[in-house]
Design a protein that fits this description.
Length: 413
């Protein structure tokens, strides 16, 4: 067997206590395909988020599944590489998956057409193709969370509020990872620059993002930016935070997009005390004060085990829970619509498009996914490093939806 595909859970045997308890207890099942990165450059994300996904599916199975259907979760490590992702898609399709969680923007780009052709709903929360919010053009691709376009708009709105309610004449710096994902927010920022009247300076950080001192020095001492929008990922966020602070820039005037916003990024930058004031965008709730965490902990305790250590890395773990929960809700909608019969891929697609006001106790934003809008509105929260922890600063909000829609329409041409 190809070594890069060795991580396959629940394909032959059940993974985790809940799935073991349920194995053999019911013959009905639905197959949920999932990709992760546990051994590649973004394993810091995948090794936590994917545990959250497994734990939520295990929890559902421990309660009898979805309307009596046990979820068979097939999990393959794609190493954040496209060829293994394509191979994983085919394996999971052959195993009967009616929905898939795809991991990584390059992977979503490579697989979008196959998702459509195979009529398998593929999800990419907080990454992937921003234009796939258009469900007419991408019928089987679901961002199900704020796209890079929506993140850029939300970051500008937050900066505006922090700078007194107007950006006219203000200097905004965009510090971004110099690849297609990092550059994707630029069209929205250019539109908002024109309408809001701010000056926009762009600062690209070349891959692999291990040095941002020159950019930070420029931002702090030459440009003297009034606010910094930071769209970095991997090791780059922590390096940039250190560089900005080292050059005297106040971190209260920095907001990180969603992949620069986890506890791991903060710890790598020197810890919560070192980056006090730093603002982060989140597309799922942060912390462990949600009913679902208590349920998962109780599930582990029933088997004499402690809750997983990954639960304390709440940003990525909670995103995994939210990601899996939306798949489960789509399955539930599809099965209910069929009167309890097993759904096919097209019916699960309609199940996603029927998700409305499902918040899972606050971890999930108040999405309204429709046939036209696969993003669900583009909602985020801002959490700030304060007093040694992440503190919620805003409720769920979205910003400049007309600007985001303009980009979606332009992408159709």
């Amino acid at each position: 067997m190809n070594k890069r595909l060795l991580w396959v859970s629940a394909l032959v045997v059940g993974l985790g206590p809940a799935m073991s308890r349920e194995a053999g207890a019911q013959s009905k099942e639905v197959v949920f395909g999932m990709q992760c990165d546990r051994t590649g450059p973004t394993e810091i994300v995948g090794s936590v988020a994917c545990v959250g996904m497994h734990d939520y599916v295990d929890l559902i199975n421990s309660k009898g599944g979805v309307d009596g259907y046990r979820i068979k979760l097939i999990d393959i490590d794609n190493q954040y590489k496209v060829p293994p992702a394509v191979e994983a898609f085919q394996r999971e399709k052959e195993a009967g998956a009616v929905t898939m969680a795809i991991y990584g923007t390059p992977q979503v780009v490579a697989l979008a057409q196959q998702c459509n052709d195979s009529k398998i709903s593929c999800t990419s929360p907080g990454f992937g193709i921003s234009a796939s919010a258009d469900g007419k053009r991408y019928p089987y691709v679901f961002p199900i969370a704020a796209s890079y376009w929506s993140q850029a708009a939300a970051a500008v709105e937050y900066a505006k509020q922090q700078l007194g309610g107007s950006l006219k004449g203000k200097k905004i710096a965009y510090l971004f990872y110099d690849n297609p994902a990092g550059r994707e927010g630029l069209p929205v920022l250019q539109d908002l620059k024109a309408s809001e009247g701010f000056e926009l300076s762009e600062f690209a950080v070349p891959p692999p993002g291990l040095d941002a001192n020159a950019q930070a020095l420029d931002i702090a001492q030459r440009t003297r930016a009034d606010f910094v929008l930071m769209h970095l990922f991997g090791r780059a966020p922590s390096i940039a935070l250190k560089a900005l602070k080292g050059n005297g820039y106040p971190l209260r005037k920095v907001i990180g997009f969603v992949w620069a916003s986890a506890e791991a990024d903060i710890e790598a930058a020197g810890g919560f005390g070192a980056v006090n004031g730093y603002n982060t965008l989140q597309f799922a709730g942060v912390g462990t004060d949600y009913p679902v965490h208590k349920e998962i902990a109780a599930m582990y305790a029933k088997d004499g085990k402690a809750a997983p250590k990954e639960m304390q890395s709440t940003v990525y773990y909670n995103r995994g829970i939210a990601w899996a929960a939306l798949h489960v809700q789509a399955l539930n909608n599809a099965i209910s619509a069929k009167g309890g019969a097993a759904p096919n891929g097209e019916e699960v697609k309609r199940g996603f498009e029927a998700i409305y006001d499902f918040t899972l106790g606050g971890i999930v934003p108040p999405l309204k996914i429709t046939e036209a809008d696969h993003e669900g509105g583009g909602y985020v929260q801002v959490w700030q490093v304060e007093g040694g922890k992440l503190v919620k600063k805003t409720d769920w909000y979205r910003a400049y939806p007309e600007v985001v829609q303009k980009q979606i329409k332009m992408a159709e041409k």
